[in-house]
Amino acid sequence: MSIKFDTQKAPRAFRTISEVAGELELQPYVIRFWESQFKQIKPMRGKGGRRYYRPRDIDFLRGVKILLHGENFTIKKVKETIIKKGKEFIVAQTNEEIDECIDVEKQSIQINFSHTGKRTIYIKSLVSEEKKIEINSLIASLNKLREQMVARKNI
Predict the structure, then answer these.
(1) What are the distances in angstroms from CA 79 to CA 38, 62, 90, 105?
(2) In this structure, how many other beta carbons lie within 10 angstroms of the beta carbon of residue 134?
(3) pLDDT, tens only, 48-71
(4) If you count DSSP H runs as helices and E runs as strands, how many of each does the chain have, helices first?
(5) What are the φ/ψ torsions at residue 128 (nearest 5 degrees)?
(6) Residue 127's Cα: distance from chain center in Å?
(7) pTM of model > 0.85
(8) Which residues, 6 or more positions from 119, have their beta carbon under 8 angstroms from its beta carbon?
(9) Domain 17-101 is of which CATH architecture?
(10) Residue 23, CB half-sphere, CA atoms under 13 Å: how many?
(11) Segment 24-34, tens digit of pLDDT
(12) What pLDDT is stored for residue 143 in this prediction?
């Protein structure tokens, strides 16, 4: 696990909400909202009420972000995952390991490129039918464009 912070603090030092938000590319209000939704996020508070996040809190927030933004989970689904697998699952897992543990189905799509032959692309199973239609439309457009390019080359 690599931690990249812009500040010159030690890797195990506590971070303010603005530092955490910068590292995770989130707005501070999103982190405050997640605190209200996930009881596992408990930053320490200073005398003035300022939040200080431990590295473990940041790792948990990173895991929540992966599930919510990367995997398009709902907050309810993330809560269920935490109940089933535990907080350590969220903290310790990387993106690929999370995919394997929650059994994300993958679809394969074969695309024929004239210059490289057949290629198979694997994508995660899409949640909504609307997204499936959108991707299939994009693939059809790309295939049509490829045919037009091949036809021009042969002229």
Answers:
(1) 7, 15, 11, 20
(2) 12
(3) 889 999 888 888 898 888 888 888
(4) 7, 4
(5) -105, 150
(6) 15
(7) no
(8) 110, 111, 112, 113
(9) Orthogonal Bundle (1.10)
(10) 21
(11) 889 999 999 99
(12) 83
